[in-house]
Give the backbone structure.
Amino acid sequence: QVQLVESGGGLVQAGGSLRLSCAASGNFASVNAMGWYRQAPGKQRELVAAITTDDSTDYVDDVKGRFTISRDNAKNTVYLQMNSLKPEDTAVYYCNVEVLRWNNRLNYWGQGTQVTVSS
């Protein structure tokens, strides 16, 4: 079994910052790509940022320069530092992690954490 535990969401004023964390634990050989998605009310879930095992990163255009994704491989944890937050960043944020388990690449989702940005 694999568990993902997210933390760090909350309510912040526009222009503020939050840092999300997602820690993976359980029975797996290694952690591969890690990423953050978000889903706003009435909208589809979208990829916000992703990071590979060699620390290559990718971001959706509207968070470039404001959000930074990073990972701590020793802790199997991925972070999302969010600065200069805007009301349109309001959403439930989910981490997604690919692990190698029994020679299979499997994807797991975190439980989601609410981020609310007030104007």
Notes: The longest strand covers residues 91-101.
